[in-house]
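in:
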């Protein structure tokens, strides 16, 4: 916790405010995991942490404003965020701790933006697949480029990963959307991929 003497003149308040803005959203005095300690020491990661906290607050506001199921949606979102924190803290096992932590923040930010539509997509493409199904891709210019994938009753968010060609977006449980021009390969939860073509 930051301990600051606040005078009516505000002369001491300003340095304390600056320090709070430079650090992460959580109290570094109680940081325990390697990931948290690293974020406290790394200004860029601390800025990412503050940004994600703001993004999460925006998503939570959307969830709480739903016409139906708002309480359940908000509770689930909080639980998922706690789960994400646990996953971030598992980065101590990674070969490169910083890359893992940074990647965790960027992916979570993209997931929140796409899942809760916190920004306008840069483009939206409707794909018709060879089995007759349709996949809608809403692409977002998040720090880590991402796509919201709507398929039937399922919604997922994939993030851009290195690929030999085209743009491959990996989502959860083995799902992915791999675009090459007007064509895309889509796999739902690790199932055999199907070829899809952009409509129109």
């Amino acid at each position: 916790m930051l301990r600051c003497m606040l005078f009516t003149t505000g002369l001491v308040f300003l340095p304390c405010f600056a320090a709070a803005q430079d650090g992460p959203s959580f109290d570094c005095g109680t940081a325990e995991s390697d990931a948290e300690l690293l974020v406290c020491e790394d200004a860029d990661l601390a800025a990412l942490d503050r940004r994600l906290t703001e993004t999460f607050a925006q998503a939570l506001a959307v969830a709480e404003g739903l016409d139906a199921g708002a309480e359940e949606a908000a509770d689930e979102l909080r639980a998922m965020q706690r789960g994400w924190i646990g996953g971030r803290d598992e980065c101590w096992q990674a070969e490169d701790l910083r890359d893992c932590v940074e990647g965790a923040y960027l992916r979570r930010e993209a997931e929140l933006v796409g899942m809760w539509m916190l920004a306008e997509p840069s483009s939206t493409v409707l794909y018709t697949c060879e089995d007759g199904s349709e996949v809608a891709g809403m692409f977002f210019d998040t720090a880590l480029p991402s796509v919201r994938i709507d398929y039937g009753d399922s919604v997922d968010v994939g993030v851009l990963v290195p690929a030999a060609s085209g743009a491959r977006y990996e989502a959860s449980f083995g799902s992915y959307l791999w675009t090459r021009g007007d064509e895309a390969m889509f796999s739902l939860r690790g199932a055999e991929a199907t070829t899809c073509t952009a409509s129109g």
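note: Residues 1-19 have pLDDT under 50 and may be disordered.
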